[in-house]
Fold these 4 entries.
Entry 1:
Amino acid sequence: MNLVLLGPPGAGKGTQAMRLSKAFSLRHMSSGDVLRAERKGGTELGDRVAEYMDSGKLVPDEIIVEVILAQLKDPGDAAGFLLDGFPRTKGQAESLDKAMEAAGCQIDLALSLKVPDNEIIDRITGRRICPGCDAVYHIKTLPPARDGVCDKDGITLIQREDDSEEVVMKRLAAYYAQTEPLEAYYRRKELLGVSDGTKSVDDVFTDLVGMVRERLGNAVS
Ligand code: AMP
């Protein structure tokens, strides 16, 4: 079972991807995390993508496609993969389909999380992360016990550079222009499942699990 998670930044893709990959033994791959790890490691690729990421633009297709497809070549012992944040353009989706076909497999389901813009902006601009352990907090909905400090390791929390309101607006614009059309792409292939991402984390998870099970023909209990 190979899944794709679609949705604007801050829709909860990362949270749901972690739970879904555990529930169905899938390999979780977040394109944003892959790129952030490259930057943290100070690699040449990290340097090439920094400017795009910090300004809320998408990294060019030829860069991200090469990075993600290279990682997909090694399936490990997972029952499939779950892509979180990739594909984000029609070109990426087509490259992914071609690579899947060449490998004799396919995307089985694309799950889209819907959240209105005002809620996205609240969620992202309030997000704080620990630069030490990558724990994620929210100033209103998930504050740390001590203001501005990570509960786990006491390190001062920071805001991701691309989580400022100005950059979020650009990331949303990129989403509507380039990524939202992928819903139609997967709908045409009868692979699209849509979930209301404003529901609680548990309720969204239940919806998504239901859609995956339906696709699996109730093979997973
Ligand atoms: P994310 O954490 O998924 O919101 O990704 C953070 C940033 O990484 C995005 O704003 C883009 O600059 C870049 N990025 C991640 N995934 C992709 C992708 N599939 N295509 C192009 N850029 C991407």
Note: The pocket of adenosine monophosphate is lined by residues 9, 31-32, 35, 52-53, 56-59, 64, 85-86, 88, 92, 162, 171 (CB under 6 Å).
Entry 2:
Amino acid sequence: MAEIVIVREAAVAGALVADEIVRLIRDKPDAVLGLATGSTPLPVYEALRPRLEGMDVSRVRGFALDEYVGLDPAHPESYRSVITREVVEPLGLDPALIRTPDGSPEGIERHGEEYEASIREAGGIDLQILGIGTDGHIGFNEPGSSFASLTRVKTLTEQTRRDNARFFDSIDDVPMHCITQGLGTILRARHLVLLAFGAGKADAVAGAVEGPVTASLPGSAIQLHPHATVVVDEAAASKLAHADYYRYAYDNKPAWQGL
Ligand code: GLP
């Protein structure tokens, strides 16, 4: 079972996860982070900023989960731009060590395998940050994605395109295709940290944590992982049947365990 941590507000979640990342970088200065986009991980990146000041992050490596296909990397909403703006620049990471899947249409059929090879060469991902879509997707693995899938091109659902239209002028500008780490890729990371905030995520969180393990709700793949942590606020936790037990377990957690 994943460890479920229910916090008062997103900022508390951000601080908890940032502390864990700092511990990781102290132990392993060339740690490999799995970076997520979307609004959910922002409190983590914000909390990391003051914590990383004065620390040597010059060897920290990172892999983004996903990218739109056919969107100019210079477009402000390409995940390359988002990761640069929200993570690389504020945290002072070396841009040469931070990768995003290559979404350029030229040679797209090979880009997934190339991305997998770079993750392998880096020794795998140490800590993967995850958000979750309202339909239960993680990365851009839409419902139906194979649990064995690796980085590949996917078609976005209408729902995801609608959800993400807020970052574009209109839904018509949201690309139809993406290239995303697969569920199999994500499951290979050594520690998964899934965050979710707000009532809009309550169904997806309940399905991922307590529902059956099913490709119909890709986030439920975390139940197969030996070290998964789910950090949610009260609203996102509101449909969890065993919330009291999760609180009790966390309150009585041995200090040596870490996150
Ligand atoms: C996008 C990203 C996902 C993210 C999801 C939720 O689809 N590809 O990685 O988890 O949006 O976004 P938000 O965190 O903004 O709710």
Note: The pocket of GLP is lined by residues 36-40, 65-66, 131-133, 139-140, 160, 164 (CB under 6 Å).
Entry 3:
Amino acid sequence: MKLSEKMSSLGTETAFEVLARAESLANEGRDIINLGIGQPDSTPPAQVVDAAIKALRDGHHGYTAAPGIYPIREAVAEYLAHTLRVEVSPENILVTPGGKPTIFFAIMMFGELGAEILYPNPGFPIYESVIRFSGAKPVPIPILERNNFSFKADELLSLITPATRLIILNSPGNPAGGAACKSEMDKFVAGIEARPDIAILSDEIYSRIYYGGTEHISLLSYPQIRNRLILLDGWSKTYAMTGWRIGFSVWPNELIEGATRLAINCHSCVNAASQWGAIAALKGPQTSVLNMVASFDERRRFLVEALNAIPGITCKDPVGAFYVFPNITGSEINSFTLQQELLEKAGVATIAGTSFGKFGEGYLRISYASPLQNIRLAVDRIKDYLSGC
Ligand code: PLP
């Protein structure tokens, strides 16, 4: 068979490979602590499961409208009005199977040979993978520890060229849990006004997961860029619904029709039961979200302190999401080797910083979406491994 040239440029998300290896080691009887995969360890609120079961019992087994049933788009609009105080029409909302299709669709819309797309590095690996697949040139926006793992607006704006078509931002960010501060967001928005031809994809999938009173700053709240802003958010992280495969995006008038056409070509629609469950998540009590974040916070504080006590490791306090991104340069082991050794020899699954791009060398991503007793044990194993015990 002769595959298309494009296939060789498609990357992957290492977290899924590490998950597969961790599972196969566990099946061989090894005791593995998986701090690799990025998903909450809680379950969705009960009303979500009830609503989805009811939808199935009520006979919702068929296709739905491609952008999502109208009640879910209305519910998302109400949710955005409530959480961000921003008015969005249901007509601009597209419900997708998770957040990932929004990344794929936005990049497919703007990416082609000769185009340049800016993306966070280290960042969610799918950005760079799909940019390369589209034929466009990926231009990394450095997300550095010295900038608290966020972008610097001046640096970002200096990367723009006449070929730039799309800029991808992610705050709070995967893998390091940094978040853009208001002044840098303001500076970015002011700077980008000179280039109204550039679209922006703001990946805000961790919008509800913050610590220490930090407030979410959404790019949706800047009216100056609304006509070219694509917002990505969803239920996966906020409501612990990663396996339900449901997310939402907000598209400007000029792009919503193209996005819907991509959806029709790709997946037709999200399954109806997930949509009804997702409505219940947005409309029901939000205590499960608050409890989940409080529990992440306790684990985050423990983990940061414990990692900083290990010789060879230093770890910044993340302000959002549920990952720490410790600096491991003091261990004198590169990121990939440490990922492999910790998994194979110490039984702890983590992800090498380089899985998130070249600026991730010297770091490991550790997810703290795992019970505290697992995290304690994992830290002990990491400490023992690094001290040669
Ligand atoms: N964007 C970021 C930054 C992520 O970390 C993830 C998942 O890990 C996604 C998007 C995709 O989310 P979903 O599982 O809803 O497709």
Note: The longest strand covers residues 164-170.
Entry 4:
Amino acid sequence: MNYPSLSPVMVAATLAAVVSLAADRDSQPMKPTLTKATYGKLPEGTLIEQYTLTNAKGVTAKIITYGALLTELHVPDRAGQLGDIVLGFDNLESYLAGHPYFGATIGRVGNRIAKGQFTLDGKTYTLAQNNGPNHLHGGLKGFDKVVWQARPVRAKNGVAVRFTYTSRDGEEGYPGKLTATVVYTLTNDNELRLDYTAKTDKATPVNLTNHSYWNLAGAGDILGHELMLNADRYTPVDDTLIPTGEIAPVQNTPMDFTRPKPIGRDLKQLANDPQGYDHNFVLSRGDKQMNLCAVVHEARSGRVLEIFTQEPGVQFYSGNFLDGTLTGKGGQVYRKHYGFCLETQHFPDSVNHPNFPSTILRPGRTYKTSTIHRFSVR
Ligand code: GLA
């Protein structure tokens, strides 16, 4: 084979070009991109697509049409090194084999409904009891296990994809044909924005959320992550994790995250089994539409996650049920507390608690809610 010979001048020029290209990457924004690829196939033949969103700073989010589920999110650490900070798998088969809602869009109703029952406008509805005696995360085949229709949409300051799913009247026991959408937007300011809407033809409860498991270090347990929750109250639960109805102050309890503290600091005082946080916090509301929900800081990587939401609550779950039986991306074994969730939402079992903010959507009205995840370093 003949190799073209390079003169020393050409080598120097080439090197200079490479160096200046590298410098440009740091200083100058790249063009945001949005691509689509086949991710896998369901046993019945439906193709599942994966959308890859990359912003002007190189931050990348990947979402699949199965469960409108965030499979990867690569954000920089203090040194500018990108790392994947969400738990999940490398392939569709692993998601199909069963998992604790990694990255998924949750619906029709996120979190628990006591005994799988509620009464609306005088009629009693019975849902699957798929979590001990209770109904969890939309039932046996919730929105995390269905195929969503995806379409790229315009975004002012980044790239975006809209996922749409129509749930038939009576699906999983819920009344009304409900069309739900979630738009994932990755902005050039390193924000991952989730904008949800829903419409129904019969009154129904709706409570959509995202179930991403975060690990800002990219591996290991999350007990050292510092968490601040903008919540001075929470909803205590019984031993099946159903709210008692009380709204209690966090002060002088392990639930107090009003000032940042490591997740693991007071966790050992909790009495539940498996031990850890799995509680709904009542967010303190300011006068802004988008309220601060949480700030998380991981000291070694320097990564910071700030969450803003329009929802009244957030379920803080410290990955208590992870037990080392699942092996995820890159062969990582997911042990207890290797990821945490901050599920912005209405309170659990709201349909059975008239004193909680209502989750009922009626025909002619549009359900609309947004949550922003902002990434930075400190
Ligand atoms: C939610 C629940 C938890 C658990 C996880 C999934 O966060 O509140 O109890 O079921 O989902 O394992």
Note: The radius of gyration is 22 Å.
